[in-house]
Specification:
The chain is an alpha+beta fold and 94 residues long. The protein has one domain. The protein has two helices and three strands. A three-stranded antiparallel β-sheet has the order 1-3-2, with no helix packed on it. The termini are far apart.
């Protein structure tokens, strides 16, 4: 299944002065939401010429893997557990 969606921001961010990192995960249930490759991350036309993206593949530590595997079917991990398993897109603009 392929889903396309737009992520509007609740407030404007000046990405010329700071990098923007995006991670998509559910902290209550495992679901794999991933980009196939960096070219599938698309920016709006008004910034695509000024910005570039990088895609980082997760590499959770053995400690995190052991912790996740220790959780029972009715247990929930820490709020940021999903972040260890999700890709990260970084947006750099000039």
């Amino acid at each position: 299944m392929v889903l396309n969606f737009t992520l509007p921001l609740s407030r404007a961010i000046d990405v010329s002065t700071q990098e923007l990192d995006v991670q998509v995960y559910d902290n209550t249930y495992f679901i794999d939401i991933s980009w196939k490759d960096p070219s599938t991350v698309m920016l709006s036309p008004d910034v695509s010429g000024k910005c570039r993206t990088t895609l980082e593949t997760p590499s959770p530590s053995q400690e995190i893997l052991d912790y996740a595997n220790s959780l029972g079917i009715d247990e929930q991990g820490d709020d940021d557990l999903g972040a260890h398993f999700s890709q990260k897109v970084s947006i750099h603009c000039e």
